[in-house]
Design a protein that fits this description.
Length: about 625
């Protein structure tokens, strides 16, 4: 089936034919020239015979591309177009070369880029464009653990040698399987056509060559000329025969249920970000659904009123180890990462953020956008693969696995709406949690009311203490005010010393600053949620804050608030200390004995005291 839609920068779709008309851009200002878009839309027509490249990719992907009308982003196809154009420029023949050799006589077709002669040897050559990650694997780079020569002196690991991860190059890590099968298939076809290649070669241009990340992976050149080994003919023929039977069977039946293998879908990375037909595949749907929920948890409240995600608030930075491996490092401040389609808008948001809070803020002003904490702060156990694709997500009772393979060793209790296995989630008792494949993950979605833009910002944390701190603060605010959403609050990082394996470690956990006067908090809570943002001081922007009106209508709860269950010793915060009677021994009429100052103070001073909630002069048992 043809490519029917383009996906615009704002994630909306337009039919290809409409987009390519003069003045047909739905966004008025084109994201790319029509000549480029014409190249994006070009596809190889289905001839009834599969091609070598079709069979190498997963059967599910090949089947869906042929049978579904799908959408593609012109932006995501940039490197594909770059590779295609590069092919044409590189395929210049001479008296020793043949280019674009088509093989059509076999049960599946193929086109080899070049057959050329060098030093009397016939070389079959194919041109590729690939990222540094794939090139590093083709070069044989891998990560290993090695001893540092130092030993733990205390804790659970006392006497054990300390280790570190280092980047090494070894033949056993070489991964060129796709290139190997493709070129060996061309070799067999060439031999049947009367050519006998002596060597197989891939010339690969590194897509991100010369960048810092490429060098950190051991990739220092922009072009590599790989030698591909000769595989047994029977092995190659069996591989393509099996893949051909699968694709033909799927086309005849009109369906295919088996997702692409881990090798074919790059451990899920291709499904999440590089597959145009993932929306039609059960595994692709699962991964995209999880990505959407992580990117935008405020959904499902209304199909019309859905807040966009403006970006992320990060808690760490990337550093490079002595071995050259990139790793995350925690910092004690918030890092804003805008992700709007406009680079100019992103820059403007960062400038406004730094003007408000500085370069490395430890406190920022936030609001929760909706009433339900389970919506704006969901928490799950999540298990990830080596390539950061989600394998399993659970709530401590039930977990959904991405494939049957990932459910192995776990107790299957049913299937979800996509037919994927649901298993018993044992939380911290799960072997995957104990092996550190799985961990708690909390995803907080907040508004930043002082910044321009209408949408939420995502902050993710795997810190047990941060999750408990935030849950506790949210519960306290809801108990004191009847709600926590659409109330201006301060989110902050606090230093916390923790014990781990007998050693003290320093971390910076998340907290809601509750040093605000309860009377002031209550005054905010009395403002209708749908008016809260409009009544706050407007940030100094170009009137973009007018879009905040769209933010607030997401909350469609009834005006009446459900009565909260009052815990023992609960008091109404609207009743200020100056209007109450302190405990015996402390109360002196309009004054009271302050435990901190050990002297008489007017009760009106207590109205503004941030230690009031746990003061022993007012509460039995003192501060808790």
């Amino acid at each position: 089936m043809p490519l029917r839609w383009f996906t615009c920068p704002d994630k909306q779709r337009i039919e290809v034919a409409e987009c390519l008309k003069e003045g047909g851009c739905r966004m008025r200002d084109r994201c790319a020239a029509r000549t480029y878009l014409q190249m994006v839309r070009q596809e190889r027509k289905w001839t009834g015979k599969p091609s070598t490249t079709q069979l190498i990719q997963g059967t599910m992907k090949a089947f869906l591309t042929l049978t579904r009308e799908y959408a593609a982003s012109p932006d995501s196809r940039a490197f594909m177009i770059h590779g295609t154009r590069g092919h044409k420029n590189l395929e210049v023949d001479d008296e020793y070369s043949l280019i674009e050799i088509a093989f059509t006589e076999d049960s599946h077709t193929g086109i080899a880029d070049v057959i050329e002669v060098e030093n009397g040897r016939t070389i079959l050559l194919d041109h590729k464009t690939a990222g540094s990650y794939k090139v590093a694997k083709a070069l044989g780079f891998g990560i290993v653990t090695e001893g540092t020569g130092e030993f733990y002196k205390s804790g659970a690991k006392k006497g054990q040698e300390k280790t570190r991860k280092v980047l090494v190059r070894d033949e056993k890590y070489i991964d060129r399987w796709e290139w190997g099968y493709q070129l060996n298939d061309y070799r067999i076809k060439a031999e049947q056509a009367g050519f006998k290649p002596d060597e197989l070669r891939i010339q690969c241009t590194v897509r991100d060559g010369g960048t810092y990340i490429a060098r950190s992976r051991g990739v220092f050149r922009n072009v590599y000329y790989f030698k591909i080994g000769i595989l047994p003919d029977k092995k190659v023929a069996a591989f393509f025969e099996q893949k051909k039977r699968q694709l033909v069977r799927a086309l005849a039946k009109g369906s295919w249920n088996e997702p692409c293998s881990g090798k074919e879908n790059w451990d899920g990375i291709r499904c999440e970000s590089y597959c145009d037909v993932a929306e039609f595949c059960s595994y692709g749907k699962y991964l995209k659904r999880e990505k959407e929920e992580e990117d935008m948890a405020i959904k499902g409240l209304s199909e019309v009123r859905r807040l966009p995600r403006l970006g992320k608030i990060r808690l760490g930075i990337k550093k490079i180890s002595q071995g050259g491996k990139e790793y995350p490092a925690e910092v004690d401040y918030f890092i804003l990462d805008p992700q709007t389609p406009s680079e100019l808008e992103n820059k403007k948001i960062i400038e406004e953020f730094e003007k408000l809070y500085g370069n490395q803020p430890k406190q920022i002003k936030i609001m929760f956008p909706v009433a339900d904490p389970d919506v704006y702060f969901p928490q799950f156990y999540k298990r990830y693969g080596s390539a950061a694709s989600l394998k399993c997500k659970g709530d401590g009772m039930v977990a959904a696995c991405a494939t049957k393979e990932f459910a192995e060793g776990l107790k299957i209790i049913g299937n979800d709406e996509f037919g994927l296995p649901k298993v018993e989630c044992k939380g911290k008792d799960c072997p995957h949690y104990q092996s550190k494949e799985c961990s708690e993950v909390g995803t907080l979605q907040v508004l930043l009311p002082e910044l321009p833009g209408a949408g939420v910002w995502q902050l993710s944390t795997g810190s047990f203490h941060s999750i408990v701190n935030l849950n506790s603060c949210i519960d306290f605010i809801r108990a004191a005010c009847g709600r926590a959403h659409m109330i201006p609050l301060v989110l902050e990082r606090r230093e916390q010393i923790m014990q781990h394996n007998g050693k003290k470690t320093k971390h910076y956990t998340l907290h809601i600053n509750l040093a605000i006067r309860l009377a002031q908090l209550q005054r905010y809570a009395l403002i209708e949620p749908t008016k809260m943002l409009l009544e706050l001081p407007a940030p100094e922007t170009d009137k973009e804050d007018i879009y905040y009106q769209e933010n607030v209508v997401i909350d469609q709860e009834p005006e009446e608030t459900k009565k909260q269950t009052e815990p023992p010793g609960y008091f109404d915060p609207l009743t200020l200390p100056s209007k109450r009677k302190a405990l015996n021994g402390f109360d002196k009429g309009m004054a009271m004995v302050c435990p901190d100052a050990d002297k008489l103070r007017p009760k009106t001073d207590c109205d503004a005291c941030d230690k009031f909630m746990g003061c022993p002069a007012w509460f039995e048992g003192g501060r808790t």
